[in-house]
Write a structure and sequence with these properties.
Keywords: Methyltransferase, mRNA capping, mRNA processing, Nucleus, RNA-binding, S-adenosyl-L-methionine, Transferase. It catalyses: a 5'-end (5'-triphosphoguanosine)-ribonucleoside in mRNA + S-adenosyl-L-methionine = a 5'-end (N(7)-methyl 5'-triphosphoguanosine)-ribonucleoside in mRNA + S-adenosyl-L-homocysteine. GO terms for molecular function: mRNA 5'-cap (guanine-N7-)-methyltransferase activity; RNA binding. There is one protein chain. This protein folds into two domains: 247 residues, Rossmann fold; 66 residues, no CATH class. It is built from ten helices and eleven strands. The longest helix is centred in the first third of the chain and has 17 residues.
Length: 341
């Protein structure tokens, strides 16, 4: 579907009382405040109904590009936006960024985008290596040199670590245990995660699980994101690793800047000193695990072209990525990337 200019409306974000939704909205707001700037060109992958339109308004961006699959309703969003007036223009495309090459559809936007964001559904791109590879090549084709790819995804290393602990605890129990039957879920007050089968190693792609929050009527299917593979494929596409951080750590590191902001997302998220209360930790990091990811388009072509052929060392600070079990991402201390990364 061809892109078209439109002038978006003021869409009011529906306030929700669910803790995980309020914290997720806070995390998105914080990331946008850090990275968005006036007159920026922003592309949002899996934009859906564009729930963050007010955040783009506040940032005074110059141009918005929304991309999502046909069933997302993005065409209806475009129709609504056409009847309104804003200070920035917009384009919408009904495309799957995991399966379709975006460049032929967005010729005027290639290497012209300041920020590409994916605030949900990165994990569905990890059903296969090919889907993840196409997504990251699409991102690289859109970004300016030095532009950023950022977003939020479940912290797969923490999820996997909790799951493995459940399996190990079950195996360590004595007497009366049925062989080859193990717990396949992680439970907390806020959510339940259910895996299909027990596996000893973290599969790089296609590890599916069902996620259901206590406030939801049904579960959603997700895939674990193997962070070393994510970084490896990003590097092959010309994207430089900047940071992957559990959102509890993100909040603690930026509490001086965003301590007052989180209060706008409702009560009972932080204590009087501005520290996250236990339920917030349960959702953001200690048990449920959201991570922010930040990648940057490499400034220059020599490293990208040579690295695709495996002949060049990665840029300073990127380090070597290991695919072995245990080096998976933010998560628990003993499962994090080495400092060199």
């Amino acid at each position: 579907m061809a892109g078209f200019a439109a002038v978006p409306p003021k869409i009011t974000t529906v306030e929700t009382s669910h803790t995980h939704q309020r914290l997720f909205d806070f995390a998105k707001t914080a990331l946008f405040k850090i990275f968005l700037f006036p007159y920026a060109t922003v592309c949002e992958l899996f934009c859906g109904q564009v729930p963050d339109v007010e955040k783009f308004d506040d940032a005074l961006i110059g141009h918005y590009i929304g991309i999502d699959v046909e069933t997302s309703g993005v065409s209806q969003v475009q129709v609504a936006w056409e009847s309104q007036r804003k200070a920035y223009t917009s384009q919408f495309f009904e495309l799957d960024p995991c399966t379709e090459i975006l460049e032929p559809h967005l010729l005027d936007m290639c290497n012209a985008v300041d920020i590409v964001c994916c605030m949900q559904h990165l994990q569905i791109c990890f059903t296969s290596e090919e889907r993840a590879r196409i997504l990251l090549r699409n991102v690289s084709s859109l970004l300016k040199p030095g532009g950023y790819f950022l977003g939020i995804t479940p912290d797969s290393s923490m999820i996997w670590a909790k799951y493995q602990k459940n399996v190990e605890a079950y195996h360590n129990k004595s007497g009366g245990m049925k062989p080859n039957i193990v717990p396949n879920c992680i439970r907390s007050e806020s959510y339940m995660i259910t895996f299909e089968v027990e596996e000893e190693k973290f599969p790089l792609f296609g590890k599916k699980y069902q996620l259901k929050f206590a406030s939801d009527n049904s579960a959603e299917t997700h895939c674990l994101v193997h962070f070393p593979s994510f970084i490896r494929l990003a590097r092959e596409a010309g994207l430089e690793y900047v940071e992957i951080q559990n959102l509890t750590e993100f909040y603690d590191d930026n509490r001086a800047q965003f301590g007052s902001l989180i209060l706008k997302f409702g009560p009972n998220l932080v204590d009087p000193r501005g520290r996250l209360v236990p339920r917030s930790y349960d959702v953001l990091g200690d048990e449920f695990y959201l991570s922010s990811f930040i990648l940057r388009e490499w400034q220059g072509t020599a490293w990208r072209d040579d690295d695709l052929n495996g002949t060049t060392e990665p840029p300073p600070g990127l380090g070597k990525i290991s695919d072995q079990k245990g080096i998976l991402g933010p998560g628990p201390v003993d499962l994090r990337f080495p400092d060199a990364v």
